[in-house]
Amino acid sequence: MRKLSLIAALAATPLALLSAAPASAQEADNDPGLEVSEERLRADMDTIVSFGTRHTLSSQTDPERGIGAAVDWALAEFGRIGDACGGCLEVLPVGRVVEPDGRRIPEPTLIRNAVAIQRGTERPNEVIIVQAHYDSRVTDPLNGVDDAPGANDDGSGSVMVLEASRILSQNEYPSTIIYALLTGEEQGLFGAGILADWVTEQGMTVKAVLNNDMIGNSCGSDGFCDPEHVRVFSEGLRADSTAELRARQRRFGGENDSPGRNLSRWLAGVAADYPDGMQVRQIWRTDRMGRGGDQIPFLDRGYPAVRVTVSVEDYEHQHQDLRVEDGITYGDTVDEIDFDYLTRSSVLNVRALDRLARAPMPPVLSANGAVRTDTSLEWDHVEGADYYVIARRRTDASTWLEDNRSFMHFDETPTGTNEPPVGTSIEYVDGRRADDWLFGIQACSADGACSPFATAVPGGAFYPLEVDSED
Ligand SMILES: [Zn+2]
């Protein structure tokens, strides 16, 4: 990547500015979200619940009951989906034996994830991960014997991942999509840690992780319902932060602009493009109070990740032994699933994945505006970027301003000259004082799919910190 030092005033590069916003992604002809089938979600749910339990400590060898049979079926189903797209999916188990940890792994245990990879045609090293945890549990986290249907937690996310692979594998994308059904979540997020290590070993660049954990109910045990939203949890301070980064953020800001936070803002925007569809309630904390999920091992390694989950949790139908007590039915069973809600949650995921897989990586950028009345932004050209969207927001504003956005085309260096390309720097000369604003940039493909914003603050880049050394 080239890092430009030249700051060009806007007036010097008039051709770089587009007069109007390019066609946006949602105007594309085909909306893959419309292909989500409630019927297939129901069929997959019935199949995975039929394994009785998918507890990580349940049988690995029984051909009909337990996690072993369930993972084998998922791998076979990914294989069938791959056959239907002419072999476009690489299907593999990603796992290893985890040693006893004195907590929820009492004996050496094979943690095996079912993974399918749809390689990108232009930037195969750039990956989007859509994942759910496939394992289930009842009241006792060590009970691998009793029935644990895990319909909502997290059969709901699991059947969405399968359905997303069916639909999106019918298209080709510049970036790679990894579909992952993880195990070992209820024992301590083991499967996600194994997958996060694996993508790191593969040298992959992780653009986004959508961790879907419980996306299939709309009412709580108190009768409060909200079928219109999913919650998206994102971290504020980066999990991979260092003392040096915190010191720089104290001087320049950035505590509310982690890549996960900007991924959350972006998802809310995708949902808002379809006002009749599922909307996003952003929750600005890493996970629910005192609880966790499989986005966390990715955040720990510096990857952009969010948790997508129901708007209202139903505590009587998660992590419960199947029983009736004082007239109340407990247990995470299929009859408690709101399939219309699950379908609309799945539609949002498919739309977001389609757009992420077409969009380039968010740029790495910096702002220079100390002790001056104007602000200059610089960024590296991003592979696959046709144009950039530059926006700002007040430091106490939650979202990027829709108005006053700038659109800049990227053009290659004119042949025969030493001029740098336009479209990788901008100078605000109209009194936009950097102290008072946050600046962000999206990278967009020629077909109008734009990445999440990356913010010009320390720690704002969509890369683990050791790679992000320049801002
Ligand atoms: Zn869960």
Kindly describe this structure.
This protein is of the alpha+beta class. It has two domains: 3-26 and 363-450, Immunoglobulin-like (Sandwich); 33-358, Zn peptidases (Aminopeptidase). Helices cover 23% and strands 22% of the residues. It is built from eight helices and 17 strands. An eight-stranded mixed sheet has the order 1-2-4-3-5-8-6-7, sandwiched between helices. The longest helix has 20 residues, at 339-358. It starts with 37 loop residues before the first helix and ends in a 16-residue tail after the last strand. Zinc ion binds at residues 133, 153-154, 185, 213-214.
- The portion of residues forming beta strands comes to 15-25%
Supply the CATH superfamily name of the largest domain: Zn peptidases
Largest sheet, if any?
A: 8 strands, mixed
**Could you give the order of the helices and strands?**
HHEEEHEHEEHHEHEEEHEEEEEEE
- Termini separation comes to 15 Å
* Computed Rg: 23 Å
Number of domains: 2
Number of strands: 17
Helix content percent band:
10-25%
Oligomer kind: single chain
Q: Using the coordinates shown, work out and report the CATH topology of the largest domain.
A: Aminopeptidase
